[in-house]
Design brief:
The complex is a heterodimer of chains A (119) and B (117). Chain A has 119 residues and is mostly beta strands. Helix content of chain A is 0%, strand content 50%. Chain A has a single domain, classed as Immunoglobulin-like (Sandwich). Chain A has no helices and twelve strands. In chain A, strands 2, 5, 6, 10, 11 and 12 form a six-stranded mixed β-sheet that branches. In chain A, strands 3-9-8-7 form a four-stranded antiparallel β-sheet, with no helix packed on it. In chain A, a hairpin with a 5-residue loop joins strand 7 and strand 8. By secondary structure, chain B is mainly β. Chain B is built from no helices and eleven strands. In chain B, strands 2, 4, 5, 6, 9, 10 and 11 form a seven-stranded mixed β-sheet that branches. Chain B has a four-stranded antiparallel β-sheet with strand order 1-3-8-7, with no helix packed on it.
């Protein structure tokens, strides 16, 4: 089974400052990794994902994340945040190898990090 | 990215009634869809995996007779909350799996806010 830990439940940061949202995972098998963003009263929007290949992944809205296998981490970064980045961010993991059709790439989510960008 | 819709976006109903929520993948076929429940300021809790043409797989602790799932086509899954009670009030979110090798990603609907009075 997989698990995901988001170490920071809340991250306040001033506008135009850099930000890093931390995510660590545990799994006995290879994994796929995802970051989703959720704005109030909305569903989740995919920011970026790591399936294979380059460990540095670039996503939408200027976000990027780096997969670090040795540290089992997938931290999300943005060099300069905007007020509009204020939202809840979820890190998620799924099995990289499908055992059966029933496993169907189920996602395990972290508890979420509320990013608040201050003017 | 791919688009997943949910309908309705919000619903208010009386205790004891049943409510149906639809989840549609608009620009891809999804043999697998997922239903989640989210409480305020909490993460998503997977309720069930919906497979086209077969029975849904429910997570431990989720009553299958309470939350009926039907995945009748490759673009539509429905969740029916039967005999809803106030404790069923929550934000329900679906996702659809785009299985094409180039992506293999879940795309989420906008969610449905259910309030049971």
């Amino acid at each position: 089974a997989q698990s995901v830990t988001q170490l920071d439940s809340q991250v306040p940061v001033f506008e135009e400052a850099p930000v890093e949202l931390r995510c660590n995972y545990s799994s006995s098998v290879s994994v796929y990794l995802f970051w989703y963003v959720q704005y109030p009263n909305q569903g989740l929007q995919l920011l970026l994902k790591y399936l294979s290949g380059s460990t540095l992944v670039k996503g939408i809205n200027g976000f990027e994340a780096e997969f670090n296998k040795s540290q089992t981490s997938f931290h999300l970064r943005k060099p300069s945040v905007h007020i509009s980045d204020t939202a809840e961010y979820f890190c998620a993991v799924s099995r990289g190898v499908e055992i059966s059709s029933g496993s169907a790439r189920q996602l395990t989510f972290g508890s979420g990090t509320q990013l608040t960008v201050l003017p | 990215g791919a688009v997943v819709s949910q309908h309705p976006s919000w619903v208010i109903c009386k205790s004891g009634t049943s409510v149906k929520i639809e989840c549609r993948s608009l620009d891809f076929q999804a043999t697998t869809m997922f239903w989640y429940r989210q409480f305020p300021k909490q993460s998503l809790m997977l309720m069930a995996t919906s497979n086209e043409g077969s029975k849904a797989t429910y997570e431990q602790g989720v009553e299958k007779d309470k939350f009926l799932i039907n995945h009748a086509s490759l673009t539509l899954s429905t969740l029916t909350v039967t005999s809803a009670h106030p404790e069923d009030s929550s934000f329900y979110i679906c996702s659809a799996r785009d299985q094409r090798p180039s992506t293999d990603t879940q795309y989420f609907g906008p969610g449905t806010r259910l309030t049971v009075l």
